[in-house]
Amino acid sequence: MTTQVRFVLLLCLSLPFVGCTQNNQVTVSGTVKVDNSPVPGGFISFTAPDGSTATDGAEIVNGHYKIKTVRGEKKVKIRGTKNVPTTVYDAVSKKTYTGEEPVLITPPVYETDNSPLKVTIEKNGEVHDFDIPSK
Questions:
Q1: Residue 53: partners with Cβ closer than 8 Å, 6 or more residues away
Q2: Which end of the chain is more exposed for a tag (fewer CB within 10 A), N or C?
Q3: All domains of the chain, ordered by start, with CATH?
Q4: What is the pLDDT of residues 15-30, one digit of tens each?
C-alpha cells in the first residue's frame, strides 16, 4: 500500500471524530430586557469561564435572541442598544441628514469580563431570559 493510500485511508477513518464538540452543541434562546422592557437591539455572547471553548454570540432583535453554543457553564455578556434619531450637518455639501444612531441602554459592566451574568447549559432548547437593571 502506498503512502498516499494510507494517508487517505487514515483521513477517512478519522473524519467521524473531527468536530466532536458538535455533539455538545445546542441551541439556546430567550429574552433580554432592561427594567422589564425588551431590549430593541444589541448582542449577547456566551463564553466558558475557563476559556476552554470558543465564544458564541448572537444578535438581539426586539428583545429576543437565539444562539448555538456548547453545553456547560457560561459567562454571559450583553450589549443592549436602541436607535435614537440623529441629525448631521455636512458643511461641505451644506446639507442636513437625518437618521438613527444606536445608543447603549445596558450598564457597561454587562459587556465586560466582570459581567455578573452566568448560566449553565445542559440540553438543547433551553430558554434563558435576562432582565437587567438599568442602574
A1: 21, 70, 72
A2: C
A3: 21-132 (2.60.40.10)
A4: 444 444 456 899 999 9
